[in-house]
Design brief:
Elements: H1 5-22, H2 28-46, H3 48-51, H4 66-76, H5 79-88
Helix pairs in contact: 2-4, 2-5, 4-5
Length: about 90
């Protein structure tokens, strides 16, 4: 069964318009901050059993916790954790 081409085109058009309208511009500092938070979240999950076992596994890492994650990686982690902590602090 072929989907209605008119509906498909309509949905594509409103999606395109919404994407253009919602596009945002980030400063370099903001985008670097978002990248650090993403990396800190990955590190928290990856090294949870080694470095963060005593903390809530559902802890939400925000910009404020990035330095704490790096500190815990350095204090309780292995060499890979230490290297990741160095990346987070750049």
């Amino acid at each position: 069964m072929e989907p209605n081409l008119g509906i498909k085109n309509y949905l594509a058009e409103i999606g395109r318009r919404g994407g253009i309208r919602r596009r945002r511009t980030l400063s370099t500092e903001e985008s670097k901050g978002m990248l650090r938070v993403r990396e800190a979240r990955r590190a928290f999950k990856k090294f949870y059993s080694m470095c963060f076992w005593s903390f809530d596994p559902e802890l939400v890492i925000t910009q404020n916790e990035v330095a704490w994650v790096a500190e815990q990686l350095r204090k309780n982690g292995n060499r890979k954790a230490w290297e990741l902590a160095a990346k987070l602090c750049q």
